[in-house]
Amino acid sequence: MIRQQAGTILALLLLSACAPLPFSNSPPPAKTESCGDVVEYHTLASRLSANDGWELRQALQPTGGVDDACNRLRLALLLCKPDTPFRDDAEAARLLTGFLADPATAQHPQRGLAQQLADSLADRQRLLTDSLAERQRLLAKQMLLEESLAQEKTRTQVLTKELQQIQTTATSLKKQVQAQQSQLDQLKSIEQDINAKERAVENPASDRKGAKAHEQK
Fold first, then answer.
1. Domains contained in the chain, number
2. Is residue 40 in a domain?
3. Which residues fall in a coiled-coil region (predicted)?
4. In whole angstroms, how far apart are CA 70 and each of 87, 88, 200?
């Protein structure tokens, strides 16, 4: 079916290229050729497979003939069709630029269509450029955020490690304080015993009286 459509398009192209030959030797009057039903052509071309589209693309390449203007327009229509395997916006834009810049197409019936296609491709390219720029901006912002997050994560890890060291030091100091308090309590107890013994040595009579009175009771 696709091959049949491709053959139909090629046949239409050949028929549209035919024009009656003049019977006199005088040059024919200036005439602007119509490219036929380009809308129907555009619809049929969009249904072609990749291989058929490539074959049609080769068949439409300008050769310097009288039908070059229409072939440029048809090829541009083929290449700017979205969602096709043979889409080529850059080449389509180049063909349309050549079509519009050609003095021979200044009064061409499809010049308005060519201008609309060129404007549409320019808008599409501008949107694509803006989209890519926005994507790059978002990617750059994402990279900055990821870098900032990584730095914050590293900082958090450092602070966590420092906190753990502080907690370890605090635990060690607490144990040291407890040990010193225990030693201090022991020293106080020893000091009390020493003081008691010193008093007993200094006042033995008092101590004996106290002991005797305690026995009488």
1. 1
2. yes
3. 163-190
4. 19, 18, 134
Going by C-alpha positions, the residue among 136, 155, 133 that lies closest to residue 144 is 136
Tell me the average pLDDT of the chain. Answer: 77
Count of residues making up the chain: 217
Range of the domain at 55: 2-15+35-128
pLDDT one-digit tens code per residue, 143-188: 999 999 999 999 999 999 999 999 999 999 999 999 999 998 998 8
Is the CB of residue 91 less than 8 Å from the CB of residue 55? no
| 3-state per-residue secondary structure call for 4-50 | HHHHHHHHHHHHHHCCCCCCCCCCCCCCCCCCCCHHHHHHHHCCCCH
Question: Of 69-78, 82-91, 152-161, which one has max mean pLDDT?
Answer: 152-161
| CB-CB contact of 34 with 110 (8 Å) | yes
User: How high is the pLDDT of residue 39?
Assistant: 62
Q: Using only the alpha carbons of the chain, give its radius of gyration.
A: 51
